[in-house]
Design a protein that fits this description.
12 strands, four-stranded antiparallel beta sheet, about 475 residues, rod-shaped, alpha+beta, single chain, six-stranded mixed beta sheet
Length: about 475
């Protein structure tokens, strides 16, 4: 239903746009879907596309204006020579054996001429699929000679054969292909294509070296967001180095802020724990009455709440991320939840994944969610599965669940639900701590309806 409403709103907005703008938006969106999404691939397109376009324009112009023009001029000259030989043959009948004609054609025009008396033209063969020479030579013969003819431009690669009908037979003329065809024009195209490939190869190498620092910066930023130790030295162009130095400075400021916060919290923790310990000693020395026992329970509750507040504020930032066996971690989680008195089904795991994370922090994140499920449900199920770039841990229960409109509210610190369920710690911080730990690893925690009838808490961990 939500997807249908989104489509309807999109269609309404598009219908309200002017038609040219709507068409341009549709076309640009289609082109954007076809183009690659990576910076390296897009940069290659920016370099290669203009070069290919320029080479195509140059090649087309060369083929249209130079190659075809030269071929037509050469074909016209050869046709003119053939026409002159026909005129000589018909104007001087005293050369009965055509010896003089053959000698003049061979010595002066570099043509081999044979008079085939009584012969007829061969049947026309199939035209070549792409032959500038065949087209140009046929057009010149029709224009200059205007007699039935037959040509062969592909039978022998180095020669062309022209046969023209004469009154007493057929005149066969054989010429070198280079006399009617610009045979060396392809060398220009080969040199142009070869040099373009070399230049593109050099450009791609330089571009790859320029893209590497950007990809390295992105990988380091992602690792820092997952709470992993990183070593980074800015490289590349000046702008990329500036971005790298800005990232390092940001990282230092975040670490200083976290260190100052941890130091302050340690001091506050020490002072408050000292006062609470004095309360406990004082209560232990007085007579144990119902009122004193109530005070002791209040002091114990205050101590637990203090530990929860400090743990939430610290965020377990001092732990180092290491490769961790998720099956072993989830099996330990199952054992811990069973100690709380809940029935936990067997851990359902597709394989034995090893993820780089802070194991104690992640164990606490999952335990907060599982303990919350055990508190409000009788059966708890723990499953793990891989997705494209993440590992998902789902914790299901058969408890009363949480209304969908309040599932984001329970992640706020100190929020308690009156009519539904709340976190297992009782201080309103259990779910907040779980999401804080998951996000410190670059992931998140989300709540959904469970197949068991209660609530499903899903932890997404980047793989």
């Amino acid at each position: 239903m939500a997807g249908t409403g989104l489509l309807q709103r999109t269609a309404t907005r598009l219908a309200s746009l002017p038609r040219p703008r709507r068409m341009w938006r549709i076309v640009s969106r289609a082109i954007g879907d076809l183009l690659p999404k990576g910076l390296y691939a897009r940069s290659l397109i920016i370099i290669i596309a203009p070069v290919v376009l320029l080479q195509s324009v140059i090649a087309y112009t060369f083929m249209e204006r130079h190659w075809q023009l030269v071929t037509r001029r050469l074909s016209s000259a050869v046709t003119a020579d053939v026409a002159a030989l026909i005129d000589i043959y018909e104007s001087y009948p005293q050369d009965k054996d055509s010896e003089t004609l053959t000698r003049i054609a061979n010595d002066r025009l570099n043509l081999d001429v044979d008079i085939l008396k009584g012969a007829k033209l061969p049947p026309a063969g199939p035209r070549p699929f792409f032959s500038i020479l065949d087209e140009a030579l046929s057009e010149e013969i029709r224009r200059q000679i205007r007699r039935p003819y037959w040509i062969d431009t592909v039978g022998r690669s180095s020669l062309i054969e022209i046969r023209v009908a004469i009154p007493d037979g057929v005149m066969r003329v054989t010429a070198r292909r280079s006399m009617a065809y610009a045979s060396n024009s392809h060398i220009f195209l080969l040199w142009m294509s070869g040099s373009s490939l070399v230049l593109l190869g050099v450009a791609i190498l330089f571009l790859r070296n320029q893209i590497k620092p950007i990809l390295r910066l992105a990988a380091v930023a992602e690792s820092f967001g997952k709470g992993r130790e990183i070593e980074f030295r800015p490289r590349g162009a000046r702008e990329v180095r500036q971005a790298g130095h800005a990232f390092i400075e940001m990282k230092r400021r975040i670490e200083r802020a976290m260190e100052q916060r941890t130091t302050m919290l340690n001091g506050v923790s020490h002072d408050l724990r000292t006062i609470i310990t004095r309360f406990k000693l004082s209560l232990a020395l007085v007579e144990q009455t119902p009122e004193v026992e109530d005070l002791q329970r209040d002091v114990d509750e205050m101590s637990r709440m203090l530990e929860a507040y400090l743990a939430f504020a610290r965020g377990d930032s001092g732990e180092v991320a290491v490769p961790t066996d998720m099956r072993a971690l989830l099996e330990d989680l199952r054992t811990d939840v069973e100690r709380l008195g809940a029935h936990v089904e067997a851990v359902d795991l597709e394989d034995h994944p090893r993820l780089t994370l802070r194991p104690d922090a992640m164990r606490r994140c999952l335990f907060n969610l599982a303990a919350n499920a055990a508190r409000y449900g009788e059966t708890v199920a723990i499953t793990g599965r891989r997705e494209a770039r993440a590992f998902l841990v789902s914790i299901d229960d058969d408890g009363p669940g949480i209304p969908p409109d309040q599932r984001e509210e329970v992640f706020k610190p100190f929020v308690r639900l009156d009519d539904a369920r709340q976190d297992a710690g009782g201080s309103g911080l259990g779910l907040s701590i779980a999401r804080d730990i998951a996000r410190a690893h670059g992931g998140d925690v989300s709540l959904h309806d469970s197949p068991l009838g209660g609530l499903r808490a899903t932890v997404r961990i980047p793989a």
